[in-house]
Design a protein that fits this description.
The protein has six helices and five strands. By secondary structure, it is α+β, with helices and mostly antiparallel strands. It has a three-stranded antiparallel β-sheet, with no helix packed on it. A two-stranded antiparallel ribbon has the order 1-2. Helix 1 crosses helix 2, helix 1 packs across helix 3 and helix 2 crosses helix 3.
C-alpha cells in the first residue's frame, strides 16, 4: 500500500464517513490524490464509495480489512512460491564453478566484521575495495587486513597482483 492510500485508509478508519475535502484536511493528502487513493482502496476491498454529490467514502471494519489484507498477502506468497518452484534450479556448467561475491558495506564496524569473516573463510583470494585508507586501522591490520595497495587486486596464495585499476583502492586479505 502506498503512502497516500495508507493515510486515506487510516483517516477513513477514524471517521464514520467522509468526503474528499474532509479526508484531505484530516490526512494532509492533496484532494485530487484522495480520489486516486480511494479508488485503489476500493479495488482492494478496503473502502466503500457512495456515489452521491459529493462522493462519500468509508473504510470497511478493521477486522474485515485485516482479513482482506491477509488473504491478499497469502495469495501473493502462494503465487511467488508456485512461480519459483516451476522455475527449477540452474546448474553450473562445470563442477568447479567459481563463486564471486560483491558486498557493499558502510560503517567501520560493518566493514571490519565482514572483511574478517570473509578472510577467515577464503581459500583462494579476497579482494577488498575501500574508499579510504582510514578504514584500515591498526585494529584491522592485527586481524590480518593488510595495508591498502592502490588499484591492485592480489592473489591470496601467490600474493601476485591480478589486475590494476586507477579508480579504486584494493587490499589483500592475507
Amino acid at each position: 500500500m502506498k503512502e497516500y492510500e495508507a493515510k486515506c485508509f487510516v483517516g477513513l478508519s477514524r471517521m464514520s464517513s467522509g468526503t474528499a475535502k474532509g479526508l484531505s484536511e484530516v490526512t494532509e493528502v492533496p484532494r485530487t490524490r484522495v480520489y486516486d487513493a480511494v479508488r485503489i482502496l476500493e479495488a482492494k476491498g478496503l473502502v466503500e464509495v457512495q456515489h452521491s454529490s459529493p462522493q462519500q467514502f468509508r473504510a470497511v471494519p478493521l477486522s474485515e480489512a485485516t482479513e482482506t489484507l491477509r488473504d491478499q498477502y497469502e495469495e501473493r506468497v502462494e503465487r511467488l512460491q508456485s512461480a519459483l518452484s516451476e522455475m527449477g534450479r540452474i546448474e553450473a556448467d562445470n563442477d568447479e564453478a567459481e563463486l564471486q561475491e560483491v558486498w557493499s558495506l558502510s560503517g567501520s564496524d560493518a566493514i571490519e566484521n565482514r572483511a574478517a569473516a570473509i578472510s577467515a573463510d577464503a581459500t583462494d583470494e579476497v579482494v577488498l575495495v575501500i574508499g579510504s585508507e582510514a578504514v584500515l586501522t591498526e585494529k584491522k591490520k592485527k586481524k590480518g587486513l593488510g595495508p591498502p595497495r592502490y588499484g591492485t587486486a592480489w592473489n591470496r596464495k601467490s600474493h601476485a597482483p591480478l589486475r590494476s585499476c586507477p579508480n579504486w583502492t584494493g587490499s589483500t586479505v592475507k
